[in-house]
Amino acid sequence: MTATLLRTAADLHARARTGRRAVVMTMGALHEGHATLIRTAREIAGRDGEVVVTVFVNPLQFGAGEDLDRYPRTLDADVELAGRSGADAVFAPSVDEVYPGGEPQVRISAGPMGERLEGAARPGHFDGMLTVVAKLLHLTRPDVALYGQKDAQQLALIRRMVRDLNFGVEIVGVPTVREEDGLALSSRNRYLSPAERRTALALSQALFAGRDRHAAQEALRARAREVPATRARAEALSAIGESRAAADAHAVATTAGGPAAVRAAARLVLDEAARLDPPLRLDYLALVDPADFTEIGDDFTGEAVLAVAARVGATRLIDNLPLTFGTLGDAS
């Protein structure tokens, strides 16, 4: 499948529309993670619908000293990958097309949620991101827009903006795509030297350690719930040699754990990576409520996000995993 390259909103609006339009927003330098987004968009749009991929490196979301000029620009390869993955069109506007007359005087504010974690590390980033997303939603006029869950805080803010400001579009999150060794796919991975890439694996390894600690804890709690504290049951367990296992399950289930244990397991991996050559320099490790990205307490029940950001050499990387605490289910 060949994707049509479009440079102006007028050209995009002139296209005949049948069925649903699904949009995948990117800054280019497409990789398999983007391809997964595009394939998912194709499934949602169906044969009669249309998939549009936007390629725009947004200057508003790069702060002072960040890699705007260095950010990879590979439009020819992007158009090829987009078409191969099922896109009908690639909309790659110029800065003047998106921001006629220069930087906009009126912008979207991300509010308090945009000042936490990534927002604290990159002041103004989310205001710039939401402003361009709002612009591109208006310019592309989709029925559904897809974003990767690797940028969990970005996805949460887009969903909040669409809901709070009554955008008539469905937002779909697509799970993170990883390399075989666990490293989350990112356009910035190409900046890493072989040694830096080995250190960068600590991000996903820390998340997996937190997830595994949580899963083990939930399994012990489930086992404890299956062992009633009755004398008859205790005698029966003792008769078949299970009393010690039952006691261990109860002991672990009632000792300190939960979010604190998850954070500690992840932190251990990151602390070890800080001693590598080259070292990992941690920006943050957080276990947050995805509704507002505030840290969860030890009595939290429901869906959460374990998120990490760090620098390896000159490259800054982020990653996250969803977890579920309490009665809603097991770790995911």
Task: List its traits.
single chain; 332 residues; alpha/beta; six-stranded parallel beta sheet; three-stranded antiparallel beta sheet; 11 helices; 41% helix; disordered C terminus
Structural write-up:
There is one protein chain. This protein is α/β, with parallel strands linked by helices and 332 residues long. The chain has 11 helices and 9 strands. A 6-stranded parallel sheet has the order 1-4-3-2-5-6, sandwiched between helices. Strands 7-8-9 form a 3-stranded antiparallel sheet, with helices on one face. Strand 3, helix 3 and strand 4 form a beta-alpha-beta unit. The chain is globular. The C terminus is likely disordered. The two termini are 35 Å apart.
Element layout with pairings:
Elements: E1 4-6, H1 9-13, E2 21-26, H2 32-45, E3 50-55, H3 75-85, E4 89-91, H4 95-98, H5 118-121, H6 125-140, E5 144-148, H7 152-164, E6 170-174, H8 194-225, H9 231-239, H10 243-254, H11 258-273, E7 280-288, E8 302-312, E9 315-325
Parallel strand pairs: 1-4, 2-3, 2-5, 3-4, 5-6
Antiparallel strand pairs: 7-8, 8-9
Helix pairs in contact: 6-7, 8-10, 8-11
